[in-house]
Automatic annotation (TrEMBL):
Source lineage: Eukaryota, Fungi, Dikarya, Ascomycota, Pezizomycotina
InterPro entries per the UniProt record, alphabetical: HET
Name recorded for this polypeptide: HET-domain-containing protein
A Pfam family per the record: HET
Domain Heterokaryon incompatibility: 55-153
Length: 297
């Protein structure tokens, strides 16, 4: 599988005119350094300030808990080094994939954002689209319900793809996959590759059109995200609107469309045809958006 992924990456970087080749650019605020100078089985959380490089991002579902997080109390400890045994299986697998593909830096939200600092969370959430949009590759652990499941868990349990798998039910993951220029998706059935030029599958099926091509296809992606957005498991309630802000910004940049509180001016008639499958939407004491938009729910 790794050799196949490596060949997909090489083809994308050398042959796809619509896909930009990864280059050394300013790193995010924090990244995981997978090659510390002393201990091989240890990784470090480092500051990206003033540093340039290429990084891999992990897209994963939290599943209601997170056994390993960076907090104000653990920041210094993680900067000194995180032991391999402390990493949950999904994170260990992400490290293996990243190093096997030849990359040095890995970005994982729960470790690279100080989770109990509202100031840090607000600052980093605002740059989330840039982190995934500029990552060399994003690893999507689609079949993993949480960080304890591991990315490779489906290797010995092949079955059909369930569109309601854990990662698909979290709006952050939907955003991360759409924003990323290249995505390696570990489903319960196989490994899939998506870039701006092509989609490839471990079992040989290929589609010539990439997942970011065409205005109409982008709008279909948007409405698909909106349809799933209602039942999505947003770990932090305040993330409800920011969770897809990056997607809106990306679509606007690609199409020139005008964004109007969850709808698009150029497709406003279609956008206004939304309805709630569960009857009248629940009201909230907080203002979420205008009543003519689905964001008011």
């Amino acid at each position: 599988t790794f050799s196949k992924i490596s060949s997909w990456l090489e083809e994308c970087c050398t042959c796809h005119l619509s896909c930009e080749r990864p280059t050394a650019i300013p790193l995010p605020s924090r990244v995981l350094d997978l090659s510390p100078p002393r201990k091989q089985r240890q990784i470090r959380l480092i500051s990206g300030e003033g540093k340039r490089g290429q990084w891999v991002a992990l897209s994963h579902a939290w599943g209601g808990f997170q056994p390993l997080r960076t907090t104000k109390e653990t920041l210094a400890v993680h900067q000194a080094g995180i032991k391999w045994s402390e990493l949950p299986p999904t994170f260990q697998d992400a490290v293996i994939i990243t190093k096997t593909l030849g990359f040095k830096y890995l970005w994982i939200d729960s470790l690279c954002i100080i989770q109990n600092s509202p100031e840090d969370w607000d600052r980093e959430a605002a740059t989330m689209a840039s982190v995934y949009g500029n990552a060399a590759i994003t690893i999507c652990a689609e079949a993993a319900a949480n960080s304890q499941c591991g990315i490779f868990k489906s290797a010995n349990n092949r079955r059909g793809i369930d569109v309601r798998l854990p990662a698909n039910n979290r709006a952050w993951v939907l955003q991360e996959s759409l924003l990323s220029p290249r995505v390696i998706i570990y489903t319960a059935d196989q490994v899939k590759w998506s870039c701006r030029t092509a989609e490839k599958f471990e079992r040989g099926r290929e589609e010539g059109e990439g997942y970011l091509l065409g205005h109409r296809k982008l709008l279909r992606c948007w409405y698909d995200i909106v349809e799933r957005y209602g039942p999505c498991n947003i770990t932090k309630a305040e993330d409800r609107l920011p969770a897809i802000a990056g997607v809106a910004k990306r679509i606007s940049a690609l199409t020139g469309f005008s964004y109007l509180a969850g709808l698009w001016l150029e497709d406003i008639v279609q956008g206004l045809c939304w309805f709630s499958e569960n009857g009248l939407p629940q009201t909230s004491s907080k203002y979420l958006g205008p009543t003519w938009s689905w964001v008011c729910m």
